[in-house]
């Protein structure tokens, strides 16, 4: 695993003395000479190697624009505790609005929309705009990356704000304000670099888990225009995001780690659907619990949240922290409805002494859960009246989940199930057909079916509406044609990727690399 800070890879070697053994073992494999081995790497993020996904620590002009716009409309939550940069930017925006009739007019309509959509809960009020910003393309248009029906419910509630903010962005000169403060944003980001690097390294060492999962992303965005007391975490398909507003004394690494644990562990439950389904009767036991409703209807969410809470309790404090303190935390977690926290806590005690990693132990833990025992534990528990709000918001609507689930299975390496779900979506015409074909193309890539992959990518381009799907289809086709030594055709696809998705950093990087030189398979390793 590597952490990318403003597009520059940052090595974690000094934090990974124990992890080096795991990395060594991971790299002890051989590549065949077939070009298809190279093609399998097409769906992986590039960092130190083709198989290493990125953890990014960065800022976003899109998040900046949406949050600055609501500040211009009176969003003042926790202003006094914010980083001084927030007040400075607000002053510049207010000046632009006062001195430009066009900016003033643009703000009127935008702020009327904002006032009409204010939520009583300050956390939920900010959260809906964070959700929206993570679904948008970058400047200057800020259009949704997906069709509106696929937006998270809170983002859908304020999707109309994006169009109004795009006008305000132009008329108030927000891009110029953003550019003037880039150095200040970089200094804020630097403060998080070392602690975040340590967190990533220590978490993977504890789990004995070499690297993450191919085709998935984890990004931390710092944005001082929000309330510093709030941390917003999101899981949209294969992407995990944390948005933090610096301020106060804490760096909020605990909240980031909670989301990072979800990023690492959520795919595991998808690999063992039969074992997970066996535990569904436990959902009946937690219906009276005060936790978020999602945990009461999705057993995989409940399982992993219990495991994550157990990991946090096992690793918090120091070696001298009394066991009674940890036991109290386990009990509090159970009283909120996370009834498997005690089971996983006890399992982790043995896990810490075993050289096997969590990928090896996880299926055994699922198999060994005693349904009757855990149901009794739940029945004997006096649930609390309220629960702490869950940090991570999942985008799991009741409908249109086939492709999201297919993406998760693909990321977990279950190609057969991913293909079946994508085929079902195509047959039923129930979801984005371009995205479904894109998944089929990636499955074909992983199965070394060059002809099939080419056909599916080309079909996806005919019907896809999502810019990210279009751009990556062009990039993958460019690489395929490079491997077939059809350079001119490959260049056409790289150029098309730049024109449709060049605003996305990962697309821009991949397309520019393809334009500079033909795609080559990784060197054979012995």
Give me the secondary-structure topology:
Elements: E1 2-5, E2 8-10, H1 19-26, H2 35-40, E3 54-58, H3 61-72, H4 84-99, H5 101-116, H6 122-135, H7 153-157, H8 160-171, H9 174-180, H10 182-207, E4 217-222, E5 231-236, E6 239-244, H11 253-271, H12 273-277, H13 282-285, H14 293-297, H15 299-315, H16 323-335, H17 341-351, H18 358-368, H19 371-379, E7 392-394, H20 402-411, H21 415-428, H22 433-446, H23 450-463, H24 467-483, H25 487-501, H26 505-516
Parallel strand pairs: 1-3, 3-4, 4-6, 5-7
Antiparallel strand pairs: 1-2, 5-6
The share of residues in helices is: 55-70%
Q: What value does the average pLDDT take? A: 84
The percentage of residues in β strands lies in 5-15%
**Low-confidence blocks of residues:** 6-53, 396-400
Coarse structural class: alpha/beta
Number of helical runs?
Answer: 26
Report on this model:
By secondary structure, the protein is an alpha/beta fold. It has 4 domains: 2-33 and 47-59 and 191-247, no CATH class; 61-184, no CATH class; 272-394, no CATH class; 411-516, Alpha Horseshoe (Serine Threonine Protein Phosphatase 5, Tetratricopeptide repeat), CATH 1.25.40. It is 59% helix and 6% strand. It has helices at residues 19-26, 35-40, 61-72, 84-99, 101-116, 122-135, 153-157, 160-171, 174-180, 182-207, 253-271, 273-277, 282-285, 293-297, 299-315, 323-335, 341-351, 358-368, 371-379, 402-411, 415-428, 433-446, 450-463, 467-483, 487-501, 505-516; strands spanning 2-5, 8-10, 54-58, 217-222, 231-236, 239-244, 392-394. The protein has a 7-stranded mixed β-sheet with strand order 2-1-3-4-6-5-7, with helices on both faces. α15 crosses α17 (341-351) and α22 packs antiparallel against α23 (450-463). It is globular, with a radius of gyration of 24 Å.
